[in-house]
Amino acid sequence: MIKKTILSVGQDKHQLIADLQNELVLDNLRFGVSEKRKDKIKSELMLKVAERFQNRAETIAKSWGANGYRIIKVDLRTGNNYYPPVNSMFLAKATADSPAPESLDFSAGNSKINVTASGTIELIR
Predict the structure, then answer these.
(1) CB contact at 8 A, 49 and 115
(2) What CA–CA distance (Å, rounded) separates 124 from 10?
(3) Residue 59: partners with Cβ closer than 8 Å, 6 or more residues away
(4) Are 67 and 124 in contact, with CB atoms under 8 Å apart?
(5) What tens digit of pLDDT does each residue of 46-105 get?
(6) How far apart are CA 11 and CA 118, in angstroms?
(7) Domain segments of the chain as ranges
(8) Is the overall model pTM greater than 0.70, yes or no?
(9) Sign of torsion over alpha carbons 53, 58, 62, 65
(10) What distances in angstroms separate CA 24 from CA 6, 18, 38, 101, 114, one per listed residue?
């Protein structure tokens, strides 16, 4: 039965999962943001963070009565974290006596891409 189902992969993915879930145990399934998409988002965020850094530097310079500022050092850091959803179906161990679940519940997780800037400016009088 399994061999027959696997050979018909062209069928609807939901039907394939339904066919397999009575015979196989799904232990782990993850989806993530592609590297290309992450890189694009990081680049966009870096531009926004750099602009905000400059705006804050201008505000600080004005508040201190300076004529301007000079950037001495800027450190841009990026990071991303993925927090997969917890599905209660996977928390319980399957037993031979337990009935097969009616359907799998796919929930969206969260992906966070962070960009932070810290730096040193010199005020110009």
Answers:
(1) yes
(2) 67
(3) none
(4) yes
(5) 999 999 999 999 999 999 999 999 999 999 998 765 444 444 444 444 444 555 555 556
(6) 52
(7) 1-30, 31-124
(8) no
(9) positive
(10) 12, 10, 33, 12, 38
